[in-house]
Amino acid sequence: MAQVSIRDVCKSFGSVEVMHDVHVDISDGEFVVLVGPSGCGKSTLLRMVAGLETISAGTIAIEGKVVNNMHPKDRNIAMVFQNYALYPQMTVAQNMGFALELAGKSKAEITNAVGDAATILDLHSYLDRKPGQLSGGQRQRVAMGRAIVRDPKVFLFDEPLSNLDAKLRVHMRAEIKALHQRLGATILYVTHDQIEAMTMADKIVVLNAGRVEQIGSPLDLYDRPANRFVAGFIGSPA
Ligand code: ADP
Ligand code: MG
């Protein structure tokens, strides 16, 4: 059973349809990268999986259960955005534990979960700092920490590295891949960066103007692009 199953999904804003019959299956533990030019619908699709945007037609199921009308907080999903939106007045530890506090977890549970996440992300020496005292890469790790503490089934990343400089971006790619392996997590990762897609994905979904052009492994797409758009976008010779 697919962990996340997106079936014939359409999305309209007013009378404008921006997503047309999108079909994607994500297996348990798979790292799927959704790639495509700006405005093609990547964030909209992610937001529909998260429940932050309604679905105009089709179904999205998580672990076999249709979630079309399920509240975001009941979906067992965590999302990491491009703008980390950390709370500036809270410490790193408070930022990471806040969602658990809202969920009514005990102080001990929160401390444990934050401690575990800090270990995974190497954040122990920063737990008492405020976000303003951190580097871009550290803030990015805190944003991931906020997702990890909730122990979600599925992680959604929306261009999490696009605000970082090139060198840090390369470093963080490796960190996110390591995190994926360590947690055995199922990940849907959005980027408009072809290199990021090719180096990180188990499976790439190429989206163009609200339609899926091709789904395949990085090598499949490179060796056998389905059409000129994919070939041009991935940068392969065909
Ligand atoms: P991407 O993340 O790939 O850059 P988006 O998912 O943000 O693309 O946007 C896809 C399309 O939907 C774009 O044409 C965008 O203008 C449109 N769109 C996104 N959100 C809204 C909204 N809230 N209202 C109207 N149009 C929107
Ligand atoms: Mg976007």
What does this structure look like?
Helix 2 (92-102) crosses helix 3 and helix 2 packs parallel to helix 4. Strand 4 (57-62) and strand 5 (65-66) form a beta hairpin. This protein is α/β, with parallel strands linked by helices. The strands form two sheets. A six-stranded mixed beta sheet has the order 6-7-8-3-9-10, with helices on both faces. The protein has a four-stranded antiparallel beta sheet with strand order 2-1-4-5, covered by helices on one side. The two termini are 34 Å apart. It has helices at 42-50, 92-102, 107-121, 136-148, 166-183, 194-200, 218-223, 228-234; strands at residues 4-13, 16-26, 31-35, 57-62, 65-66, 77-80, 154-158, 186-191, 203-208, 211-216. The radius of gyration is 18 Å and the shape is globular. It binds adenosine-5'-diphosphate and magnesium ion. Adenosine-5'-diphosphate binds at residues 13, 18, 36, 38-44.
List keywords for this structure.
four-stranded antiparallel beta sheet, binds adenosine-5'-diphosphate, single chain, 8 helices, alpha/beta, ATP binding, ABC-type transporter activity, 238 residues, ATP-binding, six-stranded mixed beta sheet, binds magnesium ion
At a glance:
36% of the residues lie in helices and 26% in strands. With 238 residues, the protein is of the alpha/beta class. Strand 7, helix 5 and strand 8 form a beta-alpha-beta unit.
How are the SSEs ordered, and which strands pair?
Blueprint: E1 4-13, E2 16-26, E3 31-35, H1 42-50, E4 57-62, E5 65-66, E6 77-80, H2 92-102, H3 107-121, H4 136-148, E7 154-158, H5 166-183, E8 186-191, H6 194-200, E9 203-208, E10 211-216, H7 218-223, H8 228-234
Parallel strand pairs: 3-8, 3-9, 6-7, 7-8
Antiparallel strand pairs: 1-2, 1-4, 4-5, 9-10
The structure holds adenosine-5'-diphosphate and magnesium ion (MG).
